Amino acid sequence: MSFDLAVLLRRLAAADAGQRARAADEVTDGLTGSRSDYTDAEAGALMRALARARLDESDPTASEAQLNALSELAVWHALPLDVVEQLRTLDPARIQVGERRHLGDLLDGD
User: pTM (2 decimals)?
Assistant: First the structure.
């Protein structure tokens, strides 16, 4: 897989919700059933960007895509403690039903 980490990180923080959702979906393109194409450092940077984006996310599609990408990355790479701490600060009222499984997977695995 060939990707530009800096471009993907910028797109995860884009002003447009559709672009943020697509970027989160693209993160999972580097993951297959048997391996991750990301180094641990790249995965850590992506996880931190996804967590920051999710904390401020108002779009339900982008929100779910961000948590899904985090959950998929966490299968192959250790979830950084600062990301776990950020996710714990999410307002329960802002967590959609479809996100609860992803969030539970992330926080139960720490």
Answer: 0.90
